[in-house]
Every structure is written in C-alpha cells, then in structure tokens.
Amino acid sequence: MAVKIRLKRMGSKKSPFYRIVVAESRKPRDGRFIEEIGYYNPLTEPKILRVDADKANNWIKNGAKPTTTVDRLFKENAVYEATGNYDNTDVQKAKREEEKAQAAKARAEREAELDRLEEEEKERKAKEAEAAKAKAEAEAAAAAEEEAAEEADEEAEETEEAEAEEATEEA
C-alpha cells in the first residue's frame, strides 16, 4: 500500500484551507484518509502551518512519501528531524548529475574509440590501396616482360626461319 502525506482541501469557495493528512495514494484528494497530522491556511498573514512533527516523522520513517507541496512546507518550517530524514530531492539531484557525468564520460570514451577505429580503418584502406597499386604495377611489369619475351621469341623464330630459308636456298 503506497502512502502519501498530502493536503486535503477544505473550506468554502475561494477561501480554502488545507488539512495535512496521511492517505493511500490511490484515494481521491479529498477522500478517506488514514490520519490527520496537521493543517495549513495560506490565506492568513502570516500563513499558518500546524503539524504534529512526531507523527509526520514517524510516517516518513515508515515509508510515507510527502507530496512536493507538503515537502516544501515541511522544509520551510523545519518539520523534518535535524538528521534530514527525508531530504531526498538533493540526493536524487546529486545522483542524476553523477549519472549524467558518467554518461557523458562513457559517450566521450565511445566517440574516442570510434575515432580510433575510423583512423585504423583509413590506415588499413590506404595500405590495401598501396598494396593493390604495387600489385598492379608488378603485374604490368610482368606483362610487359612477357610481351617483350614473346616479341623476342617471335623475332628469334623469324630469324631462324629466315636463316633456314637462306640455308635451303644456298643448298
């Protein structure tokens, strides 16, 4: 059962005052409540807040969560125990900031890793391009040598044929 410490609106139209009650969170704002622990009148000057601090702190220790308005009123009027029993908003804010800092650090590390991987990929591609270029040059040189060798073979065959013809003509 989720329990809240909240304001229950009372009074006539345009002149409200509030009772501070402990109620189940699923119940309507002005519905049934478990216990009344004080009241608040915002129309008087100064505003009146009367709370049984012992009951309020006891409910908070047992897990009741004050609404934001009640939390603000309790803080302004020092209802919480001196130990800061329910000063949860500052703790939550610090946790959120720490989580944001950790997330930013992780994001920066991830980006640095991606940049490093991109650089390695560029270097690898450059090496592959150099190797491909060297291979193409070697193949071109080999093809040129083959062509030169074939031409030399053809010339040698032609000269042999020419010599053979001359030899047959002489004989």
TrEMBL record:
Pfam families linked: Ribosomal_S16
**Swiss-Prot/TrEMBL keywords:** Ribonucleoprotein, Ribosomal protein
For bias type Basic and acidic residues, the affected ranges are 90-115, 122-138
Q: Name one GO cellular component term.
A: cytoplasm
Q: What GO molecular-function term can you cite, just one? A: structural constituent of ribosome
| Ribosomal protein recorded as keyword | yes
Q: Where is the composition biased (Acidic residues)?
A: 144-171
Please name the GO terms of the biological process aspect recorded for this protein, alphabetically: translation
> Which family does the entry's similarity section mention?
Belongs to the bacterial ribosomal protein bS16 family.
Protein name per UniProt: Small ribosomal subunit protein bS16
The organism of origin for this protein: Aedoeadaptatus nemausensis
Q: Which gene encodes it?
A: rpsP
